[in-house]
Amino acid sequence: MARMTTHNLDARNLLCPMPVIKAQDAVAKLSSGDVLEVTCTDPGAAHDIPAWCRVHGHSVKEIKQGSNELVVIIEVGETDG
Amino acid sequence: MIKQPKAVALVSGGLDSMLAVKVIQEQGIHVEGINFFTGFCVEGHTHAIRKKDSAKPKRNNALWVAEQLGMKLHIVDVIEEYKDVLLNPKHGYGANLNPCLDCKKFMVHKAVEWIEKNGFDFIITGEVMGQRPMSQRKDTMPIVAQESGADDLLLRPLCAKLLPETKPEREGWVKRENLYNFSGRSRKPQMALAEKFGFDDYAQPAGGCCFLTDASYSAKLTDLWRARGDRNYEMDDVMLLKVGRHIRPRDNFKLIIGREEGENNFLSGYKKRFINMHITSHRGPLLLVDGRPDHPDLELAAQILARYSQGRDESEVSVEVTDLEGNVTNMVVKPMPADSILKKWHV
Ligand code: SF4
């Protein structure tokens, strides 16, 4: 089994849908089981990134809500290969 | 074994593309969506910025549509490439700065590249003949198909019966008799079909899918280009035109003043890149100065800002000014009377 890795993505100061696009491009480079932590400042990302994950079969493990930013933690699902 | 044909759909987040996808899914085709982000899209942004809108649930309609239909959605950043579409549209503009025909052509062309790369068979859109004055006419719809390079790989399920047969129909991937012949501006046939599919709560964008169809947005963009003597633009320009009150008292500078807390917070993210001002003696908005103001200009700016503060009826208010190097100075000014802020200054 491939080793799972955790990656960080800085999507601060980007407005939706840019954080989603960045997350999408980052996930495309990862493998199933990898974790991506996306840090965002646009509160809309807390809605849009999970919606994007649902349609692509990835799961959101947690959303950490800070006062000025939030971190969306994604576990990459089955990738198209 | 016959492989299941695959189509990619241009998805804006409105009802029409949602219906088009469903019609094709019903015929056993695998459909995925693609949504192009030009920077001018109505989606997201201003809702995220303006506080008063924050009570409404925020959602990205294109993603919402994808979820309803159980399909994947790929969102593609085309900000840079889109500049040439907006600045040099071969077929010109619509009622405002919307280059709809070239825009459609560009997006379909991007979709052609996408299907080639991803092994898909054809492209669908939710276009309805005669619905939009520029890009969805009987004479312009074939132009989009030809000039995008999609030719007969472009299928418009909602009005396919009014157009020549396409490859997916010829090959028997989709049945022409199960496609539609919608035309004109009436939304009734779409609503009826939505009801048949059990869709509700879908988005109904009024003008078009982007800010370029908006007269006041287009006026601000025209003003920006004229004042700079150059039509190039950055993403930040595009964003800032969506936010705040824009006032140009002189040709050499423009003021952007937040209208409420959400906008002030958003504008404060740009403080390092603009001369900015706020009122220290009273509550008031944040102001960014775009352009090359001299000292009297800044004083004028401070007087205007004071008019939009709680100190508007005082004889003097204190204003803190931060320049581009981060140097802070203070001014005391008399708020400008409302009728001295000329109507024509409002961009
Ligand atoms: S409304 Fe905007 S996004 Fe839609 S076709 Fe016209 S220019 Fe393109």
Description:
The complex is a heterodimer of chains A (about 80) and B (about 350). Chain A is an alpha+beta fold and about 80 residues long. Helices cover about 30% and strands about 30% of the residues of chain A. Chain A has helices spanning about 20-30, 45-55; strands at about 5-10, 35-40, 60-65, 70-75. In chain A, helix 1 (about 20-30) runs parallel beside helix 2. The mean pLDDT of chain A is about 90. Chain B is an alpha/beta fold and about 350 residues long. Chain B has two domains: about 5-210, HUPs (Rossmann fold), CATH 3.40.50.620; about 245-345, no CATH class. Chain B contains twelve helices and eleven strands. Chain B starts with 5 loop residues before the first strand and ends in a 14-residue tail after the last strand. The interface of A and B includes residues 13, 21, 47 and 51 of A. The complex binds iron/sulfur cluster. Iron/sulfur cluster (SF4) binds near residues 98, 103 and 104 of chain B.
